[in-house]
Amino acid sequence: MIDMHLPILLIVVPLVSAPLCVLLRQKTLVWAFASLVCVASLGIASMLLIRVLEEGVISYAIGGWIAPWGIEYRVDTINAFVLLLVSIIAAVLMFFALPSVADEISGKQHYLFYTAYLLCFTGLMGIAITGDAFNVFVFLEISSLSSYTLIALGRDRRALTASYQYLIMGTLGATFIVIGIGLMYMMTGTLNMFDLSERLPAMFETRTAMVAFAFLTVGMLIKLAMFPMHMWLPNAYCYAPSLVTAFLAATATKVSIYVFLRFTFTVWGAEFVFEKLKLDAFLIPLSLIGIYVASLSAIYQTNIKRLLAYSSVAQIGYMMLGIGFVSITGLTGGIVHLFNHALMKAALFLSVGCAVLRLGSSDLADWKGLGRRMPVTMAAFVLAGLSLIGVPLTVGFVSKWYLILAALEKGWWPIALLALLSSLLAVIYVWRVVEVAYFQKADDDSNVKEAPLMMQISMWVLTGATLYFGIQTDLTVNVAQRAAGLLLGVTP
Amino acid sequence: MSGSTAILVSIALPLLGMPFIALTSRRPNMRETITLITAVLTFGTVISLLPSVMDGAQPAAHVIDVMPGLSLAFQIEPLGMIFALIASGLWIVTTVYAIGYMRGHHEENQTRFFVFFAFAISAALGVAFARNMFTLFIFYEVLTLSTYPLVTHHRSEEAMRAGRIYMGILMSTSVGFLLLGMVWTWQLTGTLEFAPGGILTGKASEGIVIVLLGLYAFGTGKAALMPFHRWLPAAMVAPTPVSALLHAVAVVKAGVFTIMKVVIYLFGTDLLSGAGLSTWLTYIAGFTILVGSLVAMTKDNLKARLAYSTISQLSYIVLGASLANDLGVLGGSMHIVTHAFGKITLFFCAGAILVALHKTEISDMKGIGRQMPFTMFAFLIGSLSIIGIPPFAGAWSKWYLVMASIEAHQYVAAGVLLMSSLLNVLYLLPIPIYAFFATATNDHDGLHEAPLACVLPLSFTAVGCLVLYIYPDPVLNLLRLIGGAMP
Q1: What's the domain range around B133?
Q2: Do A473 and B66 touch (CB under 8 A)?
Q3: I need a surface site. Which of B60, B74, B258, B444 has the fewest CB within 10 A?
């Protein structure tokens, strides 16, 4: 019986728990409760993925109202994978949360923090699970509004402007999306994605369809921080509390990319988007320019969180590049990188969080000699950094392999070469941190302790995952390949 | 122990040794004992594989399929066997030497040194035993990363800059070219397995073969083919044992070994020699041989001179591979062995001079033969072997390489080899000659050798140069099996 309702439970449980946090109030209690919710969601998400892999698409009609009239939750390989990713990250981060939140957020706001955290989590899961276009917008707003709050909680006062900047850009993006969805509704009279995909082809020739697509796409590209619409991201990541940065970096942009995949491939269809409108002619160059510009910007940053934020923009470029190839291999690369990058970036931001806890700063200059002062944290940073570079036996290599292979399959060897050479820029920005941490002497000789065990657990689980999934790629590549096949409408 | 277990054990042993070395950092004697035991056990395991390989067997071990069709797997063929024997065997010798050197020279952070040294050896064995290009690439990159902390051991400004060059060149060539070549090969053939006769025949046009060979040859930055050779002199800031074992043997030989493997088992010598597709590589190698030697002559710093000499000598092996005939393969792989013994002797001597007399510049080394007769005599032997004068090992490999050039009608290559020997004479022999016959520039007389732990290893490898000349047959017999079909 309960099996049947797994999809809705995945949303209802965190959604209802969020206000309950306000009632609980007591710091540790709230944390324990939020952790429990995240772990429960992880359990549900894993069961869903297993069921999807065994039985195929799961459709859930909310309130018993059958689609296309009611809202449908529709779980297939792609979003089951995204749901799992978001819930894994949310759950693993909870270890880190206890000491980190205690350090960075004033005691009175803890329960509000966890409320916003759970709401944001609900929003992201909702975006991923729903099969209804307008519902996507609703959950997008839930996650966005709560993430503005979360970012604004940062200690530095500049967090407020960063959050405001994100609010403006995020609202712009969301508005564009809702305009796009509105036009689609106007044309077809339906909001169900599956239904839309059947009714839209009849409208492909109309100008309204083009406009709807344009609004929707630009809106999504803003939300996923595609270059050059990424300007909100570096500040938001830089000034948010450590935990929030790690959480958003690993999930928010990834879910937006999922939305992009869903609308582009499932709703509009690859034929319309890539053969008629030739979106790839726009995506591929933009991704490549984005990779280079953002990586070069990362090289010149003096704040490590901002450095990693720019690196995220570059990595989004790799994902979009893979998507832009519109082939099984390319999409596999893009989707695998979506998962892999979430792991490595979360691990990196967590190690930065550990250092911030002890040093109170993520300025590169303050990291001098950290290799000696916090060897464990720096070791995690280096390992996750190697993943970012794409060294074999790390997840980064797996993504890189598929992206390069996809480019060569198309015969586009200059793109393959450009993508490979760009990963050398990652070597430079990761190594800048390594050199400061290992080769320079700390200014003061005060002893710095390692971060608390709870934080290290989260950090090492994710760092370990970047290595594990670099060697054991059965799950990730397999699921990504199936998802790619599903998106392109072919069975691999 | 079965073949496949022995392969995995030999790669795992140095890794297993690492935590124990790290844990005994406060007790140097214990730590070094553990390193030595690990080295001996590793060598023992490697050598236990030798008899079956000599009989033509090729033990294999499969670890895991990393991606569909791309597996982490090992298989020993004769070339890998000889490389593994050299790397693990000389590790023992180098460990003894390192004990004397690191203590004698009062180096800091010796624990970290021994830990990463073991790591590097494990990676080198992984390269040697790789069954496919994918596995080889993995360990190739691990080797780069594990040697970085050794190169930058002193953590000085200079070490940091050298580290940048080291990582920069090795990473950019391997990522930019080698990986691209690999993915391309995979895309063309659907496999990266090393197979006798190659996998590319009939799968790629001549133009693509040439481009691919370029990607592999230049992508293997560790082979130090010009213009991607600058990392090797930069790496000389490392403590001498690192320069000796890693940057004269394990790391650089991993590079030329990779090129050999690619030429023999990915392209196939027939594919390359048939249409002369690798002739251009012969010229690049010849150019590197000559220019490397010429630059070596201008260096007054002994380690820098030896580094450029290594660059030049590595290209002998690349040249052998590029000739793409049996004799070239034989000579090239023989040179992996003979150069290893010769050059490690020279580096050991350079380090011994540094420990005993604190000298690094050749111009200061006049007359030191009276203070360090054993060391300088070993240096003489090493030099003669590098030059290729009988009765020392280097003579054999040069002989085969010249023969191979003539057989391939590459008379220019033969000329380059002879010319290079002459240049070797000019930049190597003056050092021992001045050491023995010039008047001393420093005052204190009498015997002043480096610690015994330094002198014994360098005498051992010097004797090795002689023994390999007299009994080359075991090595040659093994190497003649290269390229044979897998049973």
Answers
A1: 3-480
A2: yes
A3: B444
